[in-house]
Structures are given as structure tokens and as C-alpha cells.
Specification:
Chain lengths: ~120, ~120
């Protein structure tokens, strides 16, 4: 199994509070991603990183920020959580571009369930 | 328009039978990749199979095969000899291009919940 650890795995918070989710990898993969999963929507990309301090927005980036100060860590921050951000958040990593000429397989973490009351 | 469409919210299959999960996609990029992932009730995402747009043959991985019909833009997953452990959500996903913003992103369908009946 790919060495990906997400923390916390479960969190309940109140509207308006800041929240940070951490993704830690031991694979030294270049690419890291944050997805959210909601019923009826599948998985949607929030932000991704293609190197230390190199990040960009995905499909649903509003209300989220990310940082990557080290290869192994990718942080997702909700500056002021809202109820619409209640979701399961998945971190993923890939050695090459997701779906690159090789398979570019994504390896997923176990997910972090966030509830915003 | 949705880029990945999975029209079957839920399906049932008898143990040891084969089952096909449908996936259609929409892209104008000639270079793309198609993926299937499995998500059991425990929640983790498990990669099953990959098909590149230029691959001449349908991908196979053990009991999984991908029925790739490029002209119809379909990439159906076929599971042979279903097992109880195959009960899970299955997601079809696509990556468009080998460069640019689209190449960093997998677009997922909404998923199909497969239930295997003993």
C-alpha cells in the first residue's frame, strides 16, 4: 500500500472556524491532490500540487487554500468553514501526471470526514 | 455537459455471474486516459484498471476488463465471475491530455453501487 496518511480522520467543527487537514506521504511522489467526495457528485478536485510550493486550483477550489512546504506534506485549509464544506476529503498522490503516458495511477489516502455544524 | 456519465446508480448481480458497469465520456481531446476505481464500504479508493486513448487493445486486469469503444465514447467495466467482495461503489474517471491543467485532474463519474447476491 502507498504510504499516505491523512489527519485528522474525523472532525466536527462549527461554522466560521478554521480547519486544516493534513496529508503526509512517504513515497516521495511529486504530485499531490485534494479531492472531496459528496453523494451524487463522485469525487471532485479541490487543489493539486506539482512540487514544493507549486500548487494550482481544481474544479471546486472556492473556500479552500493549500500549502506544500515539503515534498511529503500537503495541507488543505478551510479559512472559515461552512456547512457546504461538510464532506469526505481524500488526499491522493501520483508519481507522474495523473493518467500520464504510464498509468499515472492515483494512490488515495483513507479519507477525512469533516462535519461543519 | 457531464464529462463522465455513469447511468446506473445501483446494480445487482448473482455471485459467479459476470456484470457490466456502464461509463460514457465526453472529450474533444485526442489524448486521454480512462480509469476505474472501486470504493468498498470501508471507504478507501482502489485503482482497478486503465485504458489509454491510443491503446489498441482493451485493458484487462485479472477478473476486470475494460470494454473500450472509442467511436461510441464508452468505457464499460466488465467484472467476470462476481464475488461477494466485489460489492462496492465503482467510479469511472477520465484524464484529458498529457499537458496543461486538464492533465493534472481526473474527472470522476457519480458512481455505480454494485451489490453481489449470494
Amino acid at each position: 500500500d502507498a504510504g499516505i496518511t491523512q489527519s485528522p480522520r474525523h472532525k466536527v467543527t462549527e461554522t466560521g472556524t478554521p480547519v486544516t487537514l493534513r496529508c503526509h506521504q512517504t513515497e516521495n511522489h511529486r504530485y499531490m491532490y485534494w479531492y472531496r467526495q459528496d453523494p451524487g457528485h463522485g469525487l471532485r478536485l479541490i487543489h493539486y500540487s506539482y512540487g514544493v510550493k507549486d500548487t494550482d486550483k481544481g474544479e471546486v477550489s472556492d473556500g479552500y487554500s493549500v500549502s506544500r512546504s515539503k515534498t511529503e506534506d500537503f495541507l488543505l485549509t478551510l479559512e472559515s468553514a461552512t456547512s457546504s464544506q461538510t464532506s469526505v476529503y481524500f488526499c491522493a498522490i501520483s508519481e507522474g501526471l495523473a493518467g500520464g503516458p504510464d498509468t499515472g495511477e492515483l494512490f488515495f489516502g483513507e479519507g477525512s470526514r469533516l462535519t461543519v455544524l | 455537459a457531464q464529462k463522465i456519465t455513469q447511468t446506473q446508480p445501483g446494480m445487482f448481480v448473482q455471485e459467479k455471474e459476470a456484470v457490466t458497469l456502464d461509463c460514457t465520456y465526453d472529450t474533444s481531446d485526442p489524448s486521454y486516459g480512462l480509469f476505474w476505481y472501486k470504493q468498498p464500504s470501508s471507504g478507501e479508493m482502489i485503482f482497478l484498471i486503465y485504458q489509454g486513448s491510443y491503446d489498441q487493445q482493451n485493458a484487462t486486469e485479472g477478473r476486470y476488463s475494460l470494454n473500450f469503444q472509442k467511436a461510441r465514447k464508452s468505457a464499460n467495466l466488465v467484472i467476470s465471475a462476481s464475488q461477494l467482495g466485489d460489492s462496492a461503489m465503482y467510479f469511472c474517471a477520465m484524464r484529458e491530455g498529457y499537458s496543461g491543467a486538464g492533465s493534472y485532474q481526473l474527472t470522476f463519474g457519480k458512481g455505480t453501487k454494485l451489490s453481489v447476491i449470494p
